[in-house]
């Protein structure tokens, strides 16, 4: 049994003083809010944030947009989410500008408007938002909502790539690889494609495999070439499947294995890859019926089995 000791007269006075103090009121408010957040109802966050937003609090506008967009602390309402993101965006909130642009691009909460989306991505990108820099670069690359401008696209994509955006890293790496509207530079290609590949960009893995196979921008390393081709092939990249099949067919960087070659080339051809189909046709001429049957069987199994 726990025995509760009575408070001394001095202790009781001290406790009473603490309960009536400003400190206790602050702590009590914090605890109430903590409890409220843990047991929130859809209306609670609105009650807290909407008065602040009405007073012009930009962060409250942004948070309300998020709440309505995700249905967290508020009912899911994309029209209201768009409204609050727009209000915050017009006041210069970079993340709100990006979210507003994204909703306009995707037609969420209003009819899609790529031109307006590009405008707000630019506003956010100019404030250093990496995701906006990437998205604006891709829109310029494709001419979506803006005039096509590959040079300007690459400028924005390079900014985003430097901030770690994987799609931007892939596009910049491929541009350096192919010399597309930029001076061809295999060393730069290898740098950016490596960063994209380690972030699981499949096309970057295949391109990186080619660089290692041919010794472009890196020291020739067939083991690394096989490694990157195989990772991309396992992820169902048809070009990589053709490449790894080619290596098994010729015994380049791996032990020659016609059946494995057939398996990978058949997978590639099934995805519509012309290189895989052509190499498969050439390979079949030198295989036995048994090898072809086994290769076809393996090609129908799930990748990695």
Summarize the structure in words.
There is one protein chain. The chain is 71% helix and 0% strand. It is built from 17 helices and no strands. It is elongated. 42% of the residues are buried.
Radius of gyration computed on alpha carbons = 29 Å
Low-confidence stretches are: 1-8, 11-41
Shape category: elongated
Q: What portion of residues is helical?
A: over 70%
Total beta strand runs: 0
Biggest sheet, in brief?
A: none
Q: Residue-averaged pLDDT, rounded?
A: 88
Structural class: mainly alpha
N- and C-termini, Cα separation? 63 Å
Q: In DSSP terms, counting alpha (H) and pi (I) runs of 4 or more, how many helices?
A: 17
Q: Strand-and-helix sequence, N→C?
A: HHHHHHHHHHHHHHHHH
How large a portion of the residues is in β-strands, by DSSP E?
Answer: under 5%
Features:
single chain; 305 residues; mainly alpha; 17 helices; 71% helix; elongated; disordered N terminus
Can I get a quick summary?
It contains 17 helices and no strands. By secondary structure, it is mostly helical.
Write the layout of secondary structure elements.
Blueprint: H1 9-19, H2 22-38, H3 44-54, H4 58-70, H5 78-90, H6 94-106, H7 114-126, H8 130-142, H9 150-162, H10 166-178, H11 186-197, H12 202-214, H13 222-234, H14 238-250, H15 258-270, H16 274-284, H17 289-300
